[in-house]
Amino acid sequence: xxDAPSPxxxxxxxxxxxxxxxxxxxxxxxxxxIFNRAAEEYFGASRDMVLGRxxxxxxxxxxxxxxEAACHAAxxxxxxxxxxxxxxxxxxxxxELRIAPMAPDGIAxxxxxxxxxxAIQDALLESQARLEMATEASHLxxxxxxxxxxxxxxxxxxxxxxxxxADEPVSYAMLEASVHPGDREDLIARLGRAFDPALREAGAYxxxxxxxxxxxxxxxxxxxxxxxxxxxxxxxxxYVGTVEDITEQRDxxxxxxxxxxxxxxxxxxxxxAVWETxxxxxxxxxxLEMNRMLGFADDARPTLEQVNARYAPGELARVVxxxxxxxxxxxxxxxxxxxxxxxxxxxxxxxxxxxxxxDPGGYPTRAVGVMMDITERKEAEERMKLLASEVxxxxxxxxxxxxxxxxxxxxxxxDGFKASLAGRLSALARSHxxxxxxxxxxxDLGGLLWEELSPYDTDRxxxxxxxxxxxLLNPAAAQAxxxxxxxxxTNAAKHGALSAPEGSVRVAWTSDDAGGLEIxxxxxxxxPVTQPTRRxxxxxxxxxxxxxxxxGGAEMTWAPEGLRARLTLPGVDTR
Length: 575
Description:
The chain is built from 18 helices and 22 strands. The protein is an alpha+beta fold and about 575 residues long. It has four domains: about 5-115, Beta-Lactamase (2-Layer Sandwich); about 120-250, Beta-Lactamase; about 270-375, PAS domain (Beta-Lactamase, 2-Layer Sandwich), CATH 3.30.450.20; about 380-570, Heat Shock Protein 90. The longest helix is centred in the last third of the chain and has 34 residues, at about 375-410.
């Protein structure tokens, strides 16, 4: 039978009834002598069931635990122990135990249910862990500046970004000093707007910082001021935010802009248009250059159907056949030239280079590439072909004319034959040179006459007089007239006006609306002229050169005062 509690113990027990913590006391034999109401509620047992019984009878699961060790330390050594643990009787709850000695040889135990506090702390720790994981994953540093504290709260990532040491205390003054001088003034101004209760500016901003080694880094910050209401109005108490190192990102963007600029320069220099098509969607990603190249308005957004509708007849089918052939060979790069029609009916030549992309079956559904207008090149190539053909044709005609000249040339001796033939061939060469200079489009009549007669005007000026409007001779007429004029000039130099020092030659020409040409050749101041008794090669050449396919003629008048010749060519001024 247990001893009844002393009056002091009774008074203590009565006082303990009013507290919310569970409290019980044990004597030197581990028997319960005090067990308050809160302990009854916690353990689910009445004090009548507990008082007088030993601790280990009521709470056998406490054996061999830190709780038993703390109890012995309190009774035997007078040690006070406080710790938090999961309740052995109610595993879903957490309690804080305080075990202390109690005179004469007993102990007192108080327990406080801290389950809710523990849950809040655990949730806070879990939230902080998630925040740290999120900020680390996004490479964000977190910081807080309490204006009433000397040091800022800076996360490890923020320290790395700002270039501070892992254990180095960080103040706002240190942070401000690390800002690049070129950005410091703007950052201070932003801070003033953030701390202004009327503005409370928040949001993202970028600035540069200087690391201790002098390296320049670019960071993006985001911050917001926290205010407290006071009698004098809102007052800022904290400034919290994040910081992110965006140096590499900005470097990549800079390099990308530079690369795009170089590409743009290359495209502009090459007069190219960049394009992209999606066959499934029927869309074309056009550009100003492409619209102009295809004859659309600058702000047009043509569909693929509209673009394809302007291919010259047969060209779209040819391009599609080329694409199908590429796909069949397992290739995906297209290089093709084709004709394209503008709205005004003008035909343009385009060169298209593209990379084809397709579905898993290989059918091309999209393409990206460049386009160039090669109309000028194609026209130049066509002109070169025509010119080459014309030169070949004229060369054949010239060779035939040379052969005829050789066959008909006569002279009393070899030297005379050579001189006569060389002069006539030189006349052909001069006309050929004039035609070549004009790209075989024609030769100027005045230039042809001057080339033939200028050598005879060296003694005194005025021996050769040329009068007439500008007149373009076609190649056939130029070659024929060069031979005829050479014969007239040679005859004048040998027997006519140009054989005498005072002699002169006047050449005048006119043309009609139909392009017909009439040339009057007259000689003055030479020896008396008589009509020849036989028709020499020169006379034969004059007639043959201008007649035939040209349909012209030559009339000769052998007047005593000088030879006169009338040369006609109907409608041969231009081609």
